[in-house]
User: Fold these one by one.
Assistant:
Number 1:
Amino acid sequence: MRNNSFFYFLTLNLLKEKRRFVGIVLISTLLIFLLSSVLFISSSIKHTLNQTLIAQPDFIVQNIKGGRVSPIKDEQVDKIVDIFGVKKVTKRVYGRYFFDDKYSALIIGVDFLDEQSNKKLAKIMDSVDLKSFLSKDNMLVGQGVLNYLKSHYYTSNYNFLTPSGQMQKVNIFKALNVKSSLLSNDIIVMPLELAQKVLGLKENELTDIALNVPNDSEWANIKAKLESLNFSTRVVTKKDMKKAYENLFNYKGGLFLVLYLIVIATFSLLLYLRYSLASSLERKEIAILRAVGWSIKDVLKLKFLENIFLVIFAFVLGSSLAYIYVFILGAPLLKDIFLGGANLKQFTTFTPVVDYSVLSTIFIVFAVAFLGSVLIPVWKIAVTEPKEAL
Amino acid sequence: MNELFLNNYVIVYLFSEAVLFLIALYAFFKDISILRFWDFNNFSSKQLKLEKQSYLLSTIATFIFTLKLTLLIYFVYMIDSLSIIIPGAMCGAGVISANSYGMSLLFVKLITIFTFLLFLTLNNLDLKAKNYPLLKFKSWVLLAGLLLIFLETYLDIAYLFNIDLSVPVSCCSALFGNLEGANPLPFGLDIKMLLILYYTLFVSIILSLLLDNKLLTAVTLILFAVISYYAVVYFFGTYIYELPTHKCPFCMMQKEYYYIGYFVWGTLFSALFFGLIWVIIGLLKYESKVLKRITVTSLVLFVSLCSAYVLYYYFKNGVFL
Amino acid sequence: MVKIENLNKFYEIDGQKQYVLNAINLNIQKGECVILKGVSGSGKTTLLSIIAGLDKPSSGKVLVDGEPISKLPDMHLSSFRAQKIGIVFQNFNLLDGVSLADNAMVPLIASGIGLKEAKLKAQDALKLANIDHKANKTPIELSGGEKQRGAIARALVANPNLILCDEPTANLDRANSLSFIQTLKELHNMGKTIIVATHDSLFEELDFEHRVVEISQGSLVGRG
């Protein structure tokens, strides 16, 4: 490339014409920046949700009353364990506790004596002395909860108000070891029985039951069996959840993208007009090139490489800026627009995930629109008669 | 309308296809006027205009070809990603067979790319000569390519609008697995015969290329492509997945298998397309060493890659699947 | 070198043929220097541009170095022009904002030549045209005479056998015009075929062998 006279001339020409390109590059960069930011945010959220989904059980069995989820009796667990092919049946107790109108935390009840759940918790529990933790009513709190409690002068314990109106005093044992702020910022971990009390469940009631089915070709089968256990049972599979997430973000992202394409179409039209109105100076230059021995093909090559360079330049610049804006600056302004309404306030920072599919989507949208609209005007300039140089 | 049309990939894909359709439509009329009025011996300004327009057409063809190739990869990726929201689908195989248009669409896409590749090759030869000897022929080829794009656009719409998200589709194990011992292979072949054919045809293609035998090359290439499809799905694929029951042409394009499927199918189609183009221009009395070299290289890459998976598995585990 | 047979160039206006060039026959030998003389509007620039392949005739035959130049497809015509023909334009036609050295390189680029070789050749051509001391200047920083010499360097860079000049002295003062004629003489001595379209009377008293062909209202005056 270094010894290629064509590329030398191309760069020469680009530098010479830079003032002509500044406007186009600026708008292009802005458009790419906008699309990249939105897609980066949505793919980051999607990635994080999928990440949490991986840790989720394959099936969740819920009890439905009047179309709403209600506590499920723990005798169901014994029935489920008997189904062939089912593994890791776990009793789950969890729910939101509202400290005030604005602040709430997720309470998770854990059966600390159960070996399986123990394994899962090993990571966050690594430095907790279980014996002393279980000897009293203790809880582990996430950093967000700890900060809230501290700011309200609860330093050693907190009195939960149960739905039946009773007070339940629980000691703050320790702050959770925070690695991914996304997951454990606003959570409270306490023993299962204690969580039942705080959330107002009876001793034999659970929020839901989770289970795994390792052989995925049996999923449909097992789902049918679970549903036939009890009339009021609802079974949610991991795939259902994934689909729900997917559709939620497709809806937001898709709506944006459709609007964005309208903007792109307008931009294309402007670009088409801009290129169609080639200045007489530009025509003259092409005529000179043609007169001294450049073929139409050479001129087309020059002009297209010029435009491809502009596209790539704007793409790299726009998407890099978007990267900085979203993943380093945390997408101020746009975050509120994108997440507005949804209760996703745990997204304080975005995990940087940029995969090829997102980048290629951005590039394809832009390159197709840009190059498609300059195609015919560029050809019109390229076939300028060389005699115009005379 | 359903959730499908809010998927980013689908929107971008349809947008690009729509832009290409408009450009193809424009080119269609220009190509018709070249076919009707071209007269190289005429000095008229009309003829001069047509000569300039032929440059526009080759520019458009290059643009369409490049994008169609990119969009084919994008399409396959899109199909695969849709398997999340289409019930029953585990990979692209289920999604593409969600209705009868899917496979036709994929097939038309491949033929379109081949046609444009042929046009670009002919165009190159035509411009090298001093009297546009291939102009009529290449314009007909382009016309065919543009018509294929119209067909493709129709199939795009027919396919995507007819995916019913409430009806579960089959997954690849149901589509390609052995159902009740029925033999899925063509001509009553078994795996052993299939492999013998596969390697025999490979050697025959190389030989007929070396002997410059056009007809033999074309026949062996087409046979080889058909046999390779079955060989990859029913034999080599199982080594890529390292699972004797996993038979699927799509799963190997997923991340879990390092996207190797794109390379496997890419080399096969590259060998087939460039080989056939070499045959076609050979029949028009043009020689191209470059085309021959690309054909042989792709072919060798394809066969070595497939074989390497089998050998790797054997050396690692000491047995075949 | 140049053989023109029964060349016509006309435009049709309201069904009426307006002839710019009418039945031109002209033979130019290798190494000849031809002065194409005529008032403006006589058709000499059109004739020159047809010889250069910049314009197409309406009918007739034009052979340049044995090639039927008016019937070559663009790709061949262009590379023929790049390699075999050097053109010096009336208003120099250098690319603005590009140094003389790079300007001189332009005809070589389309042929896919390496950058180093192109730069060397451009340097040689500038030396030949006696302007290498201004190689890094852009046209805007140069005088008319200097631009002219830059244009000559560009015309010579591919070492063509045929040099075409369109009104080369129209934008020059007398001193520069005389120096241009001097350059022309050197090129003539190098054995180049030269065609100059001009109405400048300076070309009537050249001190080297040449032929004057007069053109008037699209036809050659006297024998071609």
Number 2:
Amino acid sequence: MTDRKIVIPGEVVFEGADYLPGEGTEKKGNEIVAMRFGLAEEANKLIKVIPLSGVYQPRRGNVVIGKVENVTFNGWVIDIGTADSSFLPIMEFPRYVNQDELEEIMAIGDMVVAKINSINQRGIDLTVKLKGLGRLDKGIIISINSNKVPRVIGKEGSMISLIKEETNCRITVGQNGLIWINGNKIEDELFAKKAILHVAERSFMSGLTDEMKKWFEKEKEQTGSLKNRQAVLKENKN
Amino acid sequence: MTTKETHSKEFKRPDGRKPDELRKITAKVGIIPNADGSAMFSFGDTVAIAAVYGPKKMHPQHSQNPEKGTLRCNYNMLSFSVSERIRPGPSRRSTEISKITEWALEPVLMINDFQGNVVDVHISILQANASTRCAGINAAVMALAHAGIPMKNLVSSVSIGKLDKQLVVDLIKEEEDWEEGEGATDIPITFTADGKITHIQLDGKITKKQLKEAIELARESCKKIYEIQKKALKEVGEEK
């Protein structure tokens, strides 16, 4: 069972020598002290603080969406909304790329789904060597606060699979808050966008997946009746 | 001790407060949706808002510090904040207070890992009635916490005044211009939540003994302010 509470920097989260300080915490004598504002969570005697606000903090293994900022001789510079710049080297592309065809594969301004390979002093290294990663050439991209990403994905992906199912769209959620939506019709894409923004707005609610199920039913009813009305209007005109 | 107490009883502040009574404090976090972190703090009529952006890449590039992150504060008094319109834009006074605010906040921030990056703090004084730098620091530290910047502790700031021979907390403009007896001495002090001083200024004359008393008075007041800051931060957390 996990125990959660809101903590502020400098606040003592737990007392006792057998607790271990995790991310966002520090050990001071026998006390575990929070170093940042967020939700404190305890699991197996390890205490960590989950951020509630602030800029996106890149982490190894995160799938992110970014924009090609520059093309260099050995890879692409990609903007993923972090302070440190990130780089996608030519070696991390799934097939052999000649140095002079870099621009044909991804040019400045293209959007790309990538995974964070490593974070070091010089910056962030990305990879697109896995399935589902690479350049995006259709669909729409929307942006939400990166702290709300876990709610959009839901427990074990429950929320995102619900949205995918209901809207008939392919969706990739980047941990940095950018979301790619691709459907057969533009209406589907806009509907998915509406649904995701609805979730992001209500990120503080509990039982959000059930709430969204109801929301979808209601929305479908409305658009259904709207379509009927439009059909009636058209008939009248004729 | 008895003489001091009788003295306090006789002493009348212009707004009728007790010597150790703060003005009504309001604090709110998350008031600027565009910012990464934001907060409002007010002592009575003195209202300060703070917005935090970053960590982000430092520009211009020559001011990047490859060793550790930088804190950059910008204190600004809006032209309508006082009854006599003040000229907008940076002034000698606002540049000084910006620097003072940086110094007051730096000891608690843990931005050493943000090499080459900067955390920007913009403080605007919407309405002023003395103690603006203290309100600014209090707002800034809440905004920094809200932006998820790692730090050791919060800080709380208060101004102590000596009017003639009497020590009072949280000065108003009328008291700053005190002319009776020894006149007014203004001492803004900033404490961390665990009781360490990160900033102290003194404008006027004071004896060593009274300065010590002033520090103790500030320590007590800062405890009260800290509780309000803490409550405001926790409230914004509940909403999410």
